[in-house]
């Protein structure tokens, strides 16, 4: 076989590997996110009139917890995935195993430290709301366990084995949601207890979920143990890396991951600690109203858009070890091809998801959050859906930079975007109210994404012409799909309005089923009919066309 044929085969294998890995990570992430959103319907019903206040408290605690969790994880899982993939490419599986064992020590240590700081320092992080303290106390226990669980996921990902990560993620979320719902029902409806206690138990569910997620990973490891032993036994064993060097490699790779991994969370914390200070300049000073508005954009809308952002995050995780392998081989052509694949795969799922969510924002908001502030809440969700495209793109572009060992440069570009966000925060909130933080966030991520893509193009020659041609097709079908969904929402709402209440959870469910079903089928049909899906997903689309009888 010629070198040209070998290169083509490698490119196809790499794309197929990325699609397979993305499929597992996307499935695990999307199901977890859906579970994490659906629970809000019964949870909100059981909280009754305390729902928005409870959800705002939940969001305040979770934003702070998320930052501490990322600091505790310290980017070690992604660093482990990257370094394990690097050594596996060199047939040095034994070194990868030593990395994992030393990583466990680091993850355990950072987990303990961050747990103690969060628990005992909770009064320092409450932002003037004492109700946040018990919530942070309940979340601190999860910080103790999740770093080790995340590290183990990174080890599997270093072998391009995405199934354990995806399934453990789903199990973790399922256990978390079940505990949340059971405790919320018992406290609020059976015992008629405090809504603050109920929120604290709902956040403690993160620890319960982590325990079940870690057990799932342990089962997968035991099943694959003999295979790992064979790989280690047949390694080249020519590289001897001292323990001190292994720790240095982990930390050098991991520390920038803290900033990049916490990127979206950092922006949310900026919102949390500035929104209540800047909003009074708009004339709104009532604390309950401010909490309601904060819940609308930072908790309610954010919970739904993160379902779509999680799709791109799944792609980002898949890209890191693959790009690391190509970078280790110094194969710039392969790196350029994988950047193109990652961006197109991101667009293929993100654009229709985000635009579709914006089109059905009104019934979707009512389904999950009821009719409180329904007009404003729908507008906030629609705008957040458009903004989520930039959040998702940053997840992909920052992961690409990490995959090609440009962590510090990626951090620098993110910090520029953060500075833009900080500069725009007050004027945006002053003139646009609850939409202000979203506008500042979107512009900040646009700036960060621009700098990253500009550098990648200069270094590896991104195929913008090829991306643009396919992007035009994806965007065109997505916009038509969005228009179809929007019209269907109006038409179906008018039709069912003759015999049932449209602005109810049942009415909204009917509207969403029709709008999403028909508009979604249009998008799937068009990308398969025009063969646009083939260039992104590969040859497996032919079988899908046969099943759907599309010629």
UniProtKB/TrEMBL annotation:
Which key words are in the record?
A: Cell membrane, Membrane, Transmembrane, Transmembrane helix
Localization per record = Cell membrane
Q: Which residues cross the membrane?
A: 30-52, 64-81, 102-122, 134-156, 177-196, 202-222, 254-270, 304-323, 344-364, 376-401, 413-432, 438-456, 477-500, 506-528
In the UniProt record, does the keyword Nucleotide-binding occur?
A: no
Recorded superkingdom: Bacteria
This entry carries the following GO cellular component terms, namely: plasma membrane
Record's InterPro entries?
PG_synth_SpoVB, Poly_Biosynth_Transport, Polysacc_synth
Q: How does it sit in the membrane?
A: Multi-pass membrane protein
Stored Pfam families: Polysacc_synt (PF01943)
Q: What is this protein called?
A: Transporter
Q: Which organism is it from?
A: Secundilactobacillus collinoides (Lactobacillus collinoides)
């Amino acid at each position: 076989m010629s070198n040209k044929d070998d290169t083509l085969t490698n490119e196809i294998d790499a794309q197929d590997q990325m699609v397979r890995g993305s499929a597992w990570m996307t499935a695990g992430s999307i199901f977890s996110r859906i579970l994490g959103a659906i629970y809000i319907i019964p949870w909100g019903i059981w909280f009754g009139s305390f729902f928005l206040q409870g959800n705002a408290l939940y969001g305040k605690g979770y934003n702070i917890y998320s930052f501490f969790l990322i600091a505790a994880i310290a980017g070690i899982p992604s660093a482990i995935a990257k370094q394990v993939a690097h050594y596996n490419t060199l047939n040095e599986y034994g070194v990868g195993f030593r990395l994992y064992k030393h990583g466990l020590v680091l993850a355990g240590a950072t987990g303990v430290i961050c747990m103690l700081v969060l628990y005992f320092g909770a009064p320092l992080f409450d932002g003037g709301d004492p109700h946040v303290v018990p919530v942070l106390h309940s979340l601190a226990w999860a910080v103790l366990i999740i770093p080790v669980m995340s590290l183990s996921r990174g080890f599997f990902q270093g072998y391009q084995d995405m199934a354990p990560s995806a399934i453990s993620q789903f199990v973790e979320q399922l256990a978390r949601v079940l505990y949340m719902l059971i405790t919320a029902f018992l406290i609020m409806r059976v015992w008629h207890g405090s809504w603050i206690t109920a929120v604290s138990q709902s956040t403690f569910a993160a620890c319960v979920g982590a325990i079940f997620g870690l057990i799932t990973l342990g089962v997968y490891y035991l099943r694959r143990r003999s295979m790992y032993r064979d790989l280690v036994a047949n390694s080249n064993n020519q590289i001897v890396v001292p323990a001190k060097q292994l720790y240095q490699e982990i930390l050098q790779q991991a520390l920038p991951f803290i900033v990049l991994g916490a990127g979206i969370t950092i922006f949310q914390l900026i919102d949390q600690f500035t929104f209540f200070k800047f909003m009074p300049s708009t004339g709104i000073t009532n604390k309950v109203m401010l909490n309601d508005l904060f819940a609308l954009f930072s908790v309610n809308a954010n919970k739904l858009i993160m379902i779509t952002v999680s799709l791109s995050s799944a792609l980002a995780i898949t890209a890191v070890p693959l790009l690391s392998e190509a970078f280790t081989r110094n194969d710039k052509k392969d790196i350029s091809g994988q950047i193109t694949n990652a961006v197109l795969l991101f667009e293929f799922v993100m654009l229709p998801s985000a635009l579709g969510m914006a089109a059905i924002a009104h019934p979707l908001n009512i389904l999950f959050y009821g009719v409180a502030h329904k007009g404003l809440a729908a507008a906030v969700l629609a705008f957040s859906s458009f903004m989520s495209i930039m959040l998702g793109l940053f997840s992909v572009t920052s992961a690409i930079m990490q995959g090609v060992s440009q962590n510090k440069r990626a951090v620098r570009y993110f910090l520029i975007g953060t500075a833009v966000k900080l500069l725009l925060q007050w004027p945006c909130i002053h003139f646009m109210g609850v939409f202000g933080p979203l506008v500042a966030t979107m512009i900040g991520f646009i700036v960060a994404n621009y700098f990253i893509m500009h550098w990648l193009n200069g270094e590896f020659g991104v195929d913008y012409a090829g991306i643009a041609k396919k992007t035009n097709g994806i965007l065109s079908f997505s916009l038509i799909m969005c228009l179809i969904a929007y019209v269907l929402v109006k038409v179906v709402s008018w039709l069912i309005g003759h015999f049932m209440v449209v602005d109810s959870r049942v009415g909204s469910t009917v509207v969403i089923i029709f709008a999403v079903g028909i508009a979604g089928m249009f998008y799937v049909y068009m990308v398969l009919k025009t063969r646009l899906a083939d260039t992104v997903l590969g040859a497996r689309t032919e079988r899908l066309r046969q099943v759907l009888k599309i010629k």
